[in-house]
Every structure is written in C-alpha cells, then in structure tokens.
Design brief:
The chain has a single domain, classed as Carbon-nitrogen hydrolase (Nitrilase/N-carbamoyl-D-aminoacid amidohydrolase). The chain is 27% helix and 30% strand. The radius of gyration is 19 Å and the shape is globular. The relative contact order is 0.16.
Length: 292
Amino acid sequence: MTIAARLADFLSVGVIQTSLDHEAAWIGKPRMEVIEEEHAITEIRRFTSALRQDGSSPDIVLLPELSVPRGFIPRLRSMSRAMEAIVIAGVDYREIIDEKGQKAVCNEAVIFVPNQWRKRRISSRTTMRVLGKTYPAPGELKNLTSIGYGFQKDTSIWLFDGDDVGTFAVAICYDFLDLERVAAYRGKIQHLFVLAYNKDINSFNHAAEALARMIFCNVIVCNCGYFGGSHAVSPYRDPPLRTVYQHSGAKLAAAQVVMLPVQSLYAHQREAPLSGVPLFKSLPPGFSESLS
C-alpha cells in the first residue's frame, strides 16, 4: 500500500478565536491581569464545550498566540485528553532571566497529544511539547522594552508527524513571515498552523494565500478575536474552494471546525493526482526537489 492510499481524506481542525483585550491584559508587566485571565478561561471552556456538542471533537484544536493563562495549562491538558484531540495553543508570556542577567520573556505555544487520538490509543498518557517564537513583532518588542523586558528567541523548527492525517508545522505569529521557515517547510508538510495576535489582518490573509502556494500546503491562521481575521486556505485549483474558512470583524469571539484535504493533497504534491482532473493548482517551481 502506498503512503497516499493509507492517508485520511480530510483532517478536521477546530479554530477558536478568544477575544482577549491586549490593552487591558498586559498593563506594565508581561502577564495577564486577573480579570482578563478569568475572561480567557471562560471563553476557552465555552468554545471547547461547543466543539463537542455533536458528541465528537475535531482532530486538532487551535487557540491563538498568548491566549491561554499559564495557570490553565494543566486543565488544558485534561481537556485535550477528554476531547481526544491534539490541542495547539499560544500561552501567556514566560518570564526569565536571560544569559546577560536581564529580565526577558519567552513567547511559547504548547502542544498536547492525548493518549487516545482518532479512535486509537497511541500512548499511556497525554504528552506535552513546548515550542517558542523566534522573532518578536516590532510592536511586541517595543511594548516589552517599554516595561523593561527583553525577548528570548527560540530558533527551533519543529515538524510533527500526524500519521494518517499528514505532517504539520506550527508558527507563532511573526515567524509566519520568516523565509527560512518557508524553506524548511517546503515539501515536508501538508498543514501549517499559525497562532497569531495580529492587527494587520489583510497582510496575513495575503501571506496565507501566497504560502499555501509556495509551501504548497493547507494554511490556517488562528488569530485573536479582538482583531479578528482567522483564515484557512488550501491550494485548490478552483478559486471558490481555496478559502476554506474566513472570519472577519473585530472584538468577536468564535469557534469553527474546518476540513482540510489530506490524501488528495499529498498525492498531488508527489505529482500523482488521484483523478485525471487536477484538484489543486500546479506545483511551484522546484517543488519536487524539496520532497522528503
């Protein structure tokens, strides 16, 4: 059996937009105010519950950059196990003392993999991985500097094997625009998940469309509801199909499940389409040489 033949048709992804107010959440310190923590937790609980209303959960659940209070991380692990879903979530800043003895923060995401996923037992317990942001956005660095904090970079680039739903990668906001990451992902993944707290919605929408073609994969931008702008694209040939999901409008919290192609996309990446009529756009120049 070929690899393509054993892949699932689609991957279901739950996209949660929380409405954290950046002007109220971090006042003079790189940690959420208590009232904003409580607001964030209430929304997370409500939307994760909504994603399970039909008796099943999406395969993967996304939460935006900086959206999860650190004290809620143990509970999020339990929720991942209960939903039997991988949860990928941006968490509040982690304060550290850097190698120069200066105050700094890490901007990180946690990835929970439940012991049972897609109706299969895959481990004895729910596991957690932590990945960090490499490049702070200019406004983010300015705000941190104004309160006396630096930014600790994490230069690691992770690829995650999802078995029959393909390989995926995760980028935190501004790292989405890093060309070195684009080169690292090219030919290696079927899905790119971007956790964002981004005001420039149009730029990220255009970047998602472009990188879906350049990396040739599904791209989901999970942005905070305060600015709006969560977006999912796939490199389909037919223009109306390319925008899989788009949610616009500021200060709106929302949750939605989207379906991303897996088997057909993987086969097309290897220039072996499942049917005679191409479902996706032509591969970008030199793509075949980047395949692993």
